[in-house]
Fold:
Amino acid sequence: MLRATIRLAEHHLLPSTPYNLYVFTRRNALQRLRNGLADLQRPHLFVLPVTNESWVLPGAARDRSTWHGWVGEGIWGASYRLMGDWRLGFMPRFARERGHRYVLQLDDNSYITGAVGQDLVALFDREAYHIGVQRMAVDPPLVAWGLPELARYFLLVYQLQPKSLFQHCDPASMAGLYSATETEGGNSDLAPAQKLFDVPTHGGWDRTVLSGNCVMISLDFWFQPLVQAFVELCRASGGAVQYRWNEQGVLGMLAQIFVEEGRLLNFTFLFMHRVSAAEALLASGLSPDPSV
Structure:
């Protein structure tokens, strides 16, 4: 998967947008990964270890008995949740320290399958975009649980008028900024809250998030004090890990709070995710990779 992601980015993105590509892995897998990518090594490709100090859960989320959803070693396990926090905390700081002004986040199975055709950095500079995203999604109630209530607290404390958030609420005001189960029977993970608080089954925040598999962020925007205050509140609350908001839920909410109309770009270049590497390469007209 990763080899195809690298090849496709080089074929479709690099001709128009010069970049440095950073691939992170655990230290015990570092040499094996470097060996596996040796034939793809270029001056713009860096294969680096995830440092121990960056791969640490926020204090409020370290008790795994408070986690909800699939919490085994499967796709939504500890590594996945750690990744979401790592993307919110370490990744933007690392990029800024390296002198970058923008970061384009990709999964190892995010495939750019058509020519981007323009310099994304120049485009963001010219149009003053804060965020660019390939896809938006609607998360299920459990995955966004508590995030609108935290956003409500943030808006009240900082006395802010959000940019587009209330367009995603029913009713379209602060009164609609709440979590709802959407089903009469509810979710077993949410049964205690339903019993204690008579949780609504309808209305509330619509849970529109920015898919984290292809998202570009202006670091000047990201490190604005109020944006950072919201990001760090989400991390410190533990909810981003406990309910798996991860970075895409936090990004979705902060975009609706802070990003003005016309400052969020929907990418239109061809893109595939969660398909086989062979299928993505074939769609792009590239030869199969014998190492895939």
